[in-house]
Amino acid sequence: MNFKVLKPYPSWGHYPPTRAQSAYVLEPPVTLPNTDSSMLPRGLGRSYGDSCLNESGVLLDTKELYHFFDFSEGVLEVESGVSLEEILNFAVPRGYFLPVTPGTKFVTVGGAIANDVHGKNHHVAGNFGNHVLELTLLRSNGELVTCSPSQNTELFQATIGGLGLTGLIVSAKVRLKKINSSYIDQEVIKYKNLGEFFELSSETGHEYTVAWIDCFASQNNLGKGLFIRGNHSTQKLALDVHPNNKKTIPLNFPSWSLNYLSVKAFNTLYYNQQLKKQSSGVVGYDPFFYPLDKINHWNRIYGKPGFFQYQCVVPKAQSHEQMQKILKLISKSGIGSFLVVLKMFGDYKKQGLLSFPEEGATLAMDFPNQGEKVLGLMTALDELVLECGGKVYPAKDARLSKQSFHQMYPEFERFKAFIDPNFSSNYLRRML
Amino acid sequence: MKICCFGANSAIAKHIVYEYADSSPEVILVGRDQQKLDVEAQHLKARYSCKTQVFSCDFTNTEKTIEVCKTLKDIDVFIIAHGYLGSQDEAQNNHSELQKIIDVNYTSYAHLLEEVGRIVDMQQFGKTIVIGSVAGDRGRQSNYIYGSSKGAIELYVQGIQHRFAHNPKIHFLLAKPGFVDTPMTKDFPKGPLWAKPKAVAKLMVQGLNKNKRVVYTPKFWFLIMTLIKWCPFFVFKKTKL
Ligand SMILES: Cc1cc2nc3c(=O)[nH]c(=O)nc-3n(C[C@H](O)[C@H](O)[C@H](O)COP(=O)(O)OP(=O)(O)OC[C@H]3O[C@@H](n4cnc5c(N)ncnc54)[C@H](O)[C@@H]3O)c2cc1C
Ligand SMILES: NC(=O)c1ccc[n+]([C@@H]2O[C@H](COP(=O)([O-])OP(=O)(O)OC[C@H]3O[C@@H](n4cnc5c(N)ncnc54)[C@H](OP(=O)(O)O)[C@@H]3O)[C@@H](O)[C@H]2O)c1
After folding, report:
1. Residue B196 to residues A246, A312, B18, B180, B182: CA-CA distances in angstroms?
2. Against a cut of 0.90, is the pTM above it?
3. Between B46, B183, B190, which is nearest A68 by CB?
4. ipTM field
5. Same domain, A223 and A246
6. What is the pLDDT along chain B (241 residues), one digit of tens a residue?
7. Can you tell me which atom of ligand 2 is nearest the CA of B150?
8. A93 close contact with B: CB closer than 8 A
């Protein structure tokens, strides 16, 4: 039986600001509520923007859909509300790992599919959706549809990266990855500029790669940072689930605590934490993939006004030149960001109609909500992204213009036919 | 290890079972809604490699309940967790609601506790978690019908504890949760006094492992209830509790 609640369901960026929202907590055996309002599935709310909000309708909270159905020969079948953390707790001791993981383990299988999330291994493994063998989708007319790459193929492709709009994903079969170690042999390389980043990225032999960059660096040092790469360890063969001692940010920080100087100091310290050009070591999967998960509600450091996350991808051919322009613009704006992440996506065929990743360079960063100034910067960044045929990631977006969205996602016209007539979101209403 | 859980679809009960699940025990789930029990059983199998058995039964049906209990043996841990909050207002005006609250929360517990008593006596071992409530500590105008049923369970459990006091392998724990965020309390506005079912379940299992006779979950409810219990009536009568 579903039960109704009224409580806040903010997005991760706390922007746009939201009030208490009606939601139905779904319980198995799953049925959709009888309601005249539009519905939107909701996972753990780790999307930064408004794609996980449905303010004029109701949310379908999947937190009670945490059941496992089956695990055999590396294929896991679970309900959509199961978190990636829970999958790791289960799979790691059995010698399996997530085929693809985003930078936090506090996301659900439903959310991972609906945004077709990517991770540090995109260049070799593609997106989460590439490892989904089958899913069951509940439509508002009560129909339960089994979709897979070979069955109801078009609905399957629309649902992967479908932003929760094609119906409720009830359960999914996901192929896990076999591992011999839950530890990572990690290398951290201090590099001096964008050119070095692209050289390092073109080296092969590492399953996981990402770079953290100092967004204040300019001119010859533009794009300087730490290049982090790794493989499942061959030195330490153990299948440990890493303990999770979380610290919590209890309250929103006052918004003045984050400013140009504190961000700049952080960036300088972070870059210089490592003095040597290159260091290597064995680290657990938790610090390697999920450094931010150590601090519960880290988003509260941005205070009440919230923050924006901006993630774009630019095609490979123009990536050096265009990233240069993008980074210059950010550096010049003086609007700082703690965590700027740069990575090369590979040439991997995606499943989803609206999936974000394309072969090329992707840049992600967060900006405190300083109103017009930041919004203006992001609009200018959109221009640079559009000019080379790039895209902005909907999972992280709260402000992209409708026109730019349609230019970036021409497949949206085809996608529309698969939207469930009783499903909607703030994001959809913004883009229709 | 073998666990038997009555009221197996209750949020708190499920989390008590998960506390034990990592050691892949055999679990017997007894509850009302067969479909939900099946999902739970499949989860315990797939996630924790447990062996499971399911019985669907309404505990106000005493005959059926006893029939299920007759099949049980070699149980290491019993959990008795079902409950019905009902509506105090309605029960004051409608005797069938009053009867239902008492039947589910007290009468069925008495029958189950007697059956569990019989089983552990026969086995000469077995530990049991019985879920009472802080509401049973003092009669209050807002929910004395539910509260008195929970209070009555406490006396019943005390009696059983006394009966088996000579056998260290037999133990009964009365757990008294405060406000817990579960389907039972879905319509209540939540605040800082509220706990999650997982947290209270953990405290109950800890209490059982330490052979406690009573645990308040979370602990701070002991303080709150001490104040409420000892509050003189001339003050108490002015409250809306
Ligand atoms: C610290 C951090 C790091 C991140 N790193 C990455 C990264 O590296 N790569 C990346 O790709 N993303 C990343 N993200 C974004 C995150 O992975 C996605 O936003 C993800 O979709 C969130 O999942 P969720 O369970 O929180 O879903 P929500 O945010 O609650 O919902 C996301 C979308 O999924 C839909 N949805 C949820 N459940 C279902 C369901 N059962 N059926 C149908 N639709 C459903 C919702 O309607 C919504 O459209 C990161 C986020 C954070 C906070
Ligand atoms: N939540 C709180 O704040 C709180 C506080 C103090 C004490 N408690 C006690 O904690 C225990 C667990 O409750 P909960 O909070 O976990 O609530 P819950 O999830 O709503 O569980 C209550 C369960 O009792 C079952 N039940 C009710 N009547 C029944 C009957 N006649 N026969 C068989 N099963 C019956 C329900 O079955 P269905 O699933 O079929 O409906 C339901 O699964 C209860 O004893 C409750 O009184 C709760």
Report:
1. 17, 38, 14, 6, 8
2. yes
3. B46
4. 0.91
5. yes
6. 999 999 999 999 999 999 999 999 999 999 999 999 999 999 999 999 999 999 999 999 999 999 999 999 999 999 999 999 999 999 999 999 999 999 999 999 999 999 999 999 999 999 999 999 999 999 999 999 999 999 999 999 999 999 999 999 999 999 999 999 999 998 898 899 999 999 999 999 999 999 999 999 999 999 999 999 999 999 999 998 8
7. 47
8. no
Residue spans per domain, chain B? 2-236
Cβ contact, residue pair A69, B46, below 8 Å: yes
Q: Which residue type is seen at A102? A: P
DSSP, collapsed to helix, strand or coil, labels residue A342 as strand
Q: How far is A290 from chain B (nearest CA, A)?
A: 23
The reply to whether A201 falls in a domain is yes
- Residues A360, A224: one domain? yes
Ligand 2 within 6 A of B133 CB? Answer: yes
Q: Which of A3, A67, A70 sits opposite B39 (nearest CB)?
A: A67
Chain B residue with minimum CA distance to A28: B36
Residue type, A311: Q
What is the distance between the alpha carbons of residues B17 and B129, in angstroms, rounded to a whole number? Answer: 11
Q: Could you tell me the CATH number of the domain that includes residue A241?
A: 3.30.70.2520
Residue span of the structural domain in which A132 resides: 68-179
> Is the CB of residue B175 below 6 angstroms from any atom belonging to ligand 2?
no
The number of domains in chain A is: 2
CATH number of B2-236: 3.40.50.720
Cα–Cα nearest to A236, from A291, A177, A280, A276: A280
Residues 6+ apart with CB under 8 A from A328: A218, A222
